[in-house]
Write a structure and sequence with these properties.
By secondary structure, this protein is α/β, with parallel strands linked by helices. It has 11 helices and 14 strands. The protein folds into 2 domains: about 160 residues, Rossmann fold (3-Layer(aba) Sandwich); about 160 residues, Glycogen Phosphorylase B (Rossmann fold). Helix 7 crosses helix 10.
């Protein structure tokens, strides 16, 4: 017998995609924590639970967790449905459910949309939730979504690790994938660029936390989510080097940890981050300039303190009160 949910907030988290799983967890944890009196229902699949110790994750008392693969067994009426993770087989179900439910696709601040062969007009029944104001602006005239809503993350919980001073931070951190995406040649090129930059450094090194393993002396292992914030705060800089990426969760987490970032011109920074001086950007075709800048400025405490303060100022703006105010509009409170 099909179960019907009425007037509830439904979160289709799934945890299906490796690349999205960290962002999904952050999104879910912040949302449930910010509204302890509100009831949520979370649907998930457990494909990656063992990799990320999801079976040991914090369970919230205001959430009903359902491990399910077939959404057609459930009916929704006048619900707010958050699509935190997506697969194309869900599309017809969601299209049908859009008739009497508000459906929001959650972008997780990645700066790009789900890539598939569906035409733009097919998405017009849905709304998009994004933490990236630049994406909101860029899509405003695309007619891709019925509505685009800016709903930032709450990064205030991370700032407990942000107080580490210049002298208590060492080296540079790379945190990301190695060669597990569909475009392995691109990933290998990016890692090669980082290794070349590292070989030219004279007063520090780049530590690599990657998945899968990187066979290099600076490889530090796979960084578990519950150690991420503390680990990021031990480094003076986070480096992200690629020819195309969105604005990932780790970038925001670094700034909330008071850690300035070094990026290539392939990164599409959150518009609010671009207004700060918490980052420095280089041309991907001139990686020598990256190592030159690091060698010149790694011991520049005055410059680092300025970037550090700017990083923290970005996180303070995304306070829990601001976060709750934005979500209350979505919940029609």
């Amino acid at each position: 017998m099909n179960k019907t949910f009425t007037n509830q907030v439904i979160n289709l988290s799934l945890y299906k995609s490796y690349f999205n799983v960290g962002g999904i967890q952050k999104f879910c944890r912040n949302l449930y924590k910010a509204f302890p009196e509100k009831k949520f229902v979370e649907f998930y699949e457990n494909q990656f639970f063992n990799i990320f110790n999801w079976d040991k994750k914090i369970k919230f008392s205001n959430v009903e967790y359902l491990n399910v693969k077939n959404l057609s067994k459930y009916k929704f009426n006048k619900c707010i449905i958050l699509v935190s993770d997506f697969k194309e087989s869900m599309f017809d179900f969601l299209l049908s459910a859009s008739a009497n439910n508000d459906i929001y696709f959650v972008d997780h601040g990645m700066g790009h949309l789900y890539k598939n062969n569906l035409p733009n007009t097919a998405w017009s029944k849905f709304k998009l939730l994004t933490a990236n104001p630049t994406l909101k602006t860029n899509l405003a005239t695309s007619n891709c979504f019925n509505e685009i809503v800016f709903a930032p993350y709450d990064w205030s919980e991370i700032t407990e690790f942000s107080c580490k001073s210049f002298e208590n931070r060492q080296d540079i951190l790379y945190l990301g994938r190695n060669t597990i995406s569909k475009n392995k040649n691109r990933d290998q090129k990016n890692i090669s660029s980082l290794l070349k930059i590292n070989s030219n450094l004279t007063n520090c090194k780049i530590d690599f936390y990657t998945f899968p393993k990187l066979f290099h002396k600076n490889y530090k292992g796979f960084l578990k989510n519950d150690l991420k914030h503390e680990t990021i705060s031990r480094y003076r800089f986070l480096i992200l080097f690629s020819n195309f990426e969105g604005s990932p969760i780790v970038l925001n987490e670094a700034l909330a940890s008071g850690t300035p970032i070094i990026v290539s011109n392939g990164w599409k920074l959150n518009g609010e981050i671009e207004k700060t001086s918490s980052w420095v950007r280089f041309n991907l075709d001139n990686i020598e300039s990256v190592s030159e800048w690091i060698n010149k400025n790694f011991e520049n405490e005055k410059l680092w303190n300025k970037m550090h303060k700017e990083a923290l100022s970005f996180s303070v703006k995304n306070s829990i009160n601001f976060y709750q105010k934005k979500w209350n509009k979505i919940f029609n409170v």
